[in-house]
Specification:
The complex is a heterodimer of chains A (111) and B (116). With 111 residues, chain A is mainly beta. In chain A, 0% of the residues lie in helices and 59% in strands. In chain A, the strands form two sheets. In chain A, strands 2, 4, 5, 9, 10 and 11 form a six-stranded mixed β-sheet that branches. In chain A, strands 1-3-8-7-6 form a five-stranded antiparallel β-sheet, with no helix packed on it. Chain B contains no helices and eleven strands. The chains are: A mainly beta (111), B mainly beta (116).
Chain lengths: 111, 116
């Protein structure tokens, strides 16, 4: 079945770049997403990428998609303490009405 | 102005009780969802309604019953609450349709249910 995998934890120093990785199995994915969940809050859409793109940049965020390897990454430049959160990768297949979610990567930013 | 609102935000109740959580969205979306997030932060879809029709019904105990009186509302009723039901329950909505789904889901802020 469809699956999305992420490493569970990442720790970086303030000012460094963070790279959160995600792999998925559904070759018919149409959209891939990154969501952010701050402590005690709901999930917030951070960015998305179409499956026919290989890169998307939005201010400090860069999303890279390697469709051949089914690998998605989120790079956060100049990571700040306010970036500490859980980051969820999710994908939507062509025929699916639901998103398939990763387990989330908990990003800790140390001063 | 809240796009997806859930009530209550916190719910503490005893085992065996019956409780409901309500969700409303003012985005005009046609699909709504209930998710359960456990203590390890794993997200699991429970139900989805599209225009009041149940379209996703994952393996969830039948003590959980969703109800959608109209496409802007999706409520979750839980009978005979158990300790293992303690979790955060998130409501979400989306707009299906070509090109619309790129916005993904809009989530509510969650209902933290604690069963004692």
């Amino acid at each position: 079945g469809e699956d999305v995998e992420q490493s569970l934890f990442l720790s970086v120093r303030e000012g460094d770049s963070s790279v959160i990785n995600c792999t998925y199995t559904d070759s018919s994915s149409t959209y891939l997403y990154w969501y952010k969940q701050e402590p005690g809050a709901g999930l917030q859409l951070l960015t998305y990428i179409f499956s026919n793109m290989d890169m998307k940049q939005d201010q400090r965020l860069t999303v890279l998609l390697n469709k051949k390897d089914k690998h998605l990454s989120l790079r956060i430049a100049d990571t700040q303490t306010g970036d500490s959160a859980i980051y969820f990768c999710a994908e939507k297949g062509g025929n699916n009405r639901k998103l398939i979610w990763g387990l989330g990567t908990s990003l800790a930013v140390n001063p | 102005d809240t796009a997806v609102s859930q009530t209550p935000k916190y719910l503490v109740t005893q085992m065996g009780n019956d409780k409901s959580i309500k969700c409303e969205q003012n985005l005009g979306h046609d699909t709504m969802y209930w998710y359960k997030q456990d203590s390890k932060k794993f997200l699991k879809i429970m139900f989805s309604y599209n225009n009041k029709e149940l379209i996703i019904n994952e393996t969830v105990p039948n003590r959980f019953s969703p109800k959608s009186p109209d496409k802007a509302h999706l409520n979750l009723h839980i009978n005979s609450l158990e300790l293992g039901d303690s979790a955060v329950y998130f409501c979400a909505s989306s707009q299906d349709g070509q090109g619309e789904f790129l916005r993904g889901y809009t989530f509510g802020s969650g209902t933290r249910l604690t069963v004692v």
